[in-house]
Amino acid sequence: MGFNCGIVGLPNVGKSTLFNALTATAAAQAANFPFCTIEPNVGRVAVPDTRLDKLAELGGSQKIVPSQLEFVDIAGLVKGASQGQGLGNQFLANIRETDAILHVLRCFEDADIVHVEGSTDPIRDADVIETELMLADLESLEKQANNMAKKAKGGDKHAIEMMDIITPIKAALEAGKPARTVKLDDSQKPLVKLLQLITSKPQLYIANVKEVDAATGNEWTKKVEARAKAEGTNAVIICAQIESEIAQMADPAEKKEFLESVGLNEPGLDKIIRAGHTMLGLQTYFTVGPKEARAWTVRTGAKAPEAAGVIHTDFERGFIKAEVISFEDFVACQGEAKAKETGKMRQEGKEYLVKDGDVMLFRFNV
Question: What pTM value is reported for the model?
Answer without folding.
Answer: 0.83
